[in-house]
UniProtKB/TrEMBL annotation:
This is Long-chain fatty acid--CoA ligase. GO terms for molecular function: ATP binding; long-chain fatty acid-CoA ligase activity. One of its GO terms (cellular component) is membrane. Residues 55-467 form the AMP-dependent synthetase/ligase domain. Keywords: ATP-binding, Ligase, Nucleotide-binding. It comes from Streptomyces adustus. PANTHER family: AMP-BINDING DOMAIN-CONTAINING PROTEIN-RELATED (PTHR43272:SF33), LONG-CHAIN-FATTY-ACID--COA LIGASE (PTHR43272).
């Protein structure tokens, strides 16, 4: 049964489908399946390669991208016609260099304009793109290039290309190596001048939705990365339904220009999917290569996006930084009151939109109006001043922070998905948030919860299979139509999904208690003094935790308490710091039963980093590596 959603002024600005609630199925009294039918018709011909040229024909003068002049100069607009011309020129250069349809071309670069240009140029030439994280080690890069059989590699810098030099003899398929910062894309365009435009048209003309578009390698948290084979049709099923569902974010033609500044890695499916959605919907897209505040904040201030893509860590950092600045200015109590008001306001909005409450009271509206110029506007200004929406994924944001941002005037759309599902499989439905969940199925998606709690996914956005050259190509990943995600979760009565952990990460204590570590880890990670947290307890008598310190938070704490800077290793046993952390653990322990509570913890003198092998490029914990490298600290938590 389907029930229409209410409407709001924001969502009435752009035409969109009448939203419907999920169809659900129960087993033994519990909801085991949820499904939302697709909002967008399936694409039956053509490919992603057509998008720049379709845009150029339909709206040649519309600004579809903005790029930094010279890489770090002022923002320059790129029209649909201009982008199509660049795509055509680079595609002809790739053809001139002898690349043939089906060849794999790898791209190793940060988030920048050239990444999107290369994606569409490669597709226009009939090629398959293979992203490589720019932070990957030489060994990881070589393995991906070998496994994918890439014939060409584009790096951002000469240093990246030089680092791979000693490995080239092990890469017999790799025939071309181009460097963005050396102007090699311009040379490709010049080289392609002698290729007839019709050659690109012919190559585009033979592509269909089922044609392979990209091979994206997973982050490899539990072993060697796997190459996920995604087709043009997978992307169409994902982005077209996302555009229809979240039309105020992606639909051009609203009263206010809509724009997205992308700073998450283009090597990750989330960033690629949103970039494609922006081109598809003709939303002005910008790229920012760095997440460092000193680099990103000026980009946000100049670009002034209306929507951000974010991971929980970033939103936690913005909140904690704002709180720290308020404390340094002697306004901490005022900030905390404002935060409490925002959370209550966000929860009241949720209650009204879900029909469980009347909405914000008159006094709560007045309190929010009072604190808006003092606190909330400053947070919005830190994001560029025009941000109305944020799409958040990667891990659960948490109810408290989601309610705060909603109350501060930024609507958060949480989602859940995998590389294997071309990005999101669930998303917070407009006007119907349920804080603390990851929403309900993206239109066209089926969700099933197996008997052991594992989440299974189905839909046209699910990958064709895994890349396996030893098996002769692509090995099906979901032969029965259901992709086993390895994640554990549950569906509520209305079809909202809550993620509770990873199947392989469940801790089974010596007493037989099953503990999902992720919810507690996410809760503790939001503390301003904690950077990372990993729970332990598998086959142990009780649960413990390894904690790393947030250096910005620690520096602020020491300044505010008149403490002199000391080396990190001396903070491990600082009694005052441990007392603060113990209070945070005590608060988190109230969320769970006694057998699930954290009994002891150790503070590590170093943070978990990707460089040390403790985090994946998408910031997930490599638990086995952490257990190995901090074995002494782990054993110290279980004396005797």
């Amino acid at each position: 049964m389907s029930t229409p959603f209410p409407t709001s002024a924001a969502f009435a600005d752009a035409a969109g489908p009448q939203l419907v609630e999920p169809e659900t199925r129960r087993l033994n009294g519990a909801v085991r399946e949820a499904y939302v039918p697709p909002f967008a018709p399936p694409v039956t011909h053509g490919s992603l390669a057509d998008l720049p040229f379709d845009n150029a024909e339909a709206a040649p003068g519309t600004v579809v991208l903005s790029r930094r002049a010279g890489g770090d100069g002022p923002w320059q607009d790129v029209t649909a016609a201009g982008f199509a011309a660049e795509v055509q020129a680079v595609a002809k250069g790739l053809i001139a260099e002898g690349l043939v349809p089906g060849d794999r071309i790898a791209v190793m670069a940060r988030t920048r304009y050239e990444w999107t240009l290369l994606d569409f140029a490669a597709w226009a030439a009939g090629l398959v793109t293979v992203p490589v994280y720019p932070t990957s080690s030489v060994f990881q890069t070589r393995w991906i290039l070998q496994d994918s059989g890439a014939v060409a590699l584009v790096t951002e810098s000469a240093a990246q290309a030089a680092a791979l030099g000693p490995e080239l003899e092990r890469l017999p398929d790799l025939r071309h190596l181009w460097v963005i910062e050396k102007g090699h894309l311009d040379r490709l365009a010049e080289l392609g001048a002698g290729v007839d435009d019709q050659e690109v048209a012919v190559r585009r003309g033979v592509l269909v939705p089922d044609t392979l578009a990209t091979v994206i390698y997973t982050s490899g948290t539990t072993g060697r990365p796997k190459g996920c084979v995604l087709t043009h049709g997978n992307f169409f099923a994902e982005v077209d339904n996302a555009i229809e569902l979240l039309h105020p974010i992606f639909r051009a033609g609203m009263k206010e220009e809509v724009s997205v500044l992308l700073f998450l890695p283009m090597s990750h499916v989330f960033g690629r999917m949103v970039a494609i959605a922006c081109v598809r919907a003709r939303v002005r897209l910008g790229h920012a290569p760095s997440l460092k505040p000193q680099d990103l904040l000026p980009d946000l201030a100049e670009f002034r996006p209306t929507c951000l893509l974010a991971i929980p860590y970033m939103l936690e950092k913005i909140f904690n930084t704002a709180r720290a600045r308020a404390e340094e200015g002697g306004r901490l109590s005022s900030f905390d009151r404002a935060a409490a008001v925002a959370r209550r306001y966000g929860e009241a909005l949720e209650a009204r939109q879900t029909g469980t409450g009347p909405g914000p009271s008159t006094s709560l509206k007045a309190a929010r109006a009072f604190y808006d110029p003092l606190v909330y506007r400053r947070i919005r200004n830190a994001m560029g001043g025009r941000v109305r929406y944020a799409i958040c994924g990667g891990s659960p944001l948490g109810r408290r922070l989601a309610a705060f941002y909603a109350g501060a005037g930024i609507e958060i759309f949480e989602g859940y998905g995998l590389t294997e599902t071309t990005g999101a499989s669930t998303v917070t439905p407009p006007l119907r948030p349920r804080l603390g969940t990851v929403g309900w199925p993206l239109p066209g998606t089926r969700i099933r919860v197996a008997a052991d709690g594992e989440i299974l996914l189905g839909g046209d956005h699910v990958l064709r299979g895994y890349w396996d050259p030893a098996a002769g190509g692509v090995v099906p990943a979901a032969p029965d139509g259901w992709l086993a995600t390895g994640d554990i979760g549950e569906l509520d009565d209305d079809g909202y999904l809550t993620i509770t952990g990873r199947k392989k990460e469940l801790l089974i204590t010596a007493g037989g208690k099953s503990v999902a570590p992720a919810p507690m880890e996410n809760w503790l990670r939001s503390h301003p003094l904690i950077s990372q947290c990993m729970l332990l307890g598998d086959a142990r008598p009780y649960v413990t935790a390894l904690i790393t310190l947030d250096q910005d938070g620690i520096a602020h704490w020491r300044r505010m308490n008149g403490k002199h800077p000391v080396p990190p290793e001396l903070l491990v046993d600082d009694d005052e710091l441990r007392a603060i952390l113990q209070r945070a653990l005590d608060e988190a322990n109230r969320l769970v039963s006694r057998p699930e509570s954290i009994r002891r913890f150790a503070v590590l003198p170093v943070d978990f980093t990707e460089e040390a092998g403790h985090l994946t490029p998408s910031m997930k914990l490599r638990r086995e590596a952490i257990m190995r490298d901090f074995a002494r600290e782990v054993e110290g938590l279980y004396p005797g």
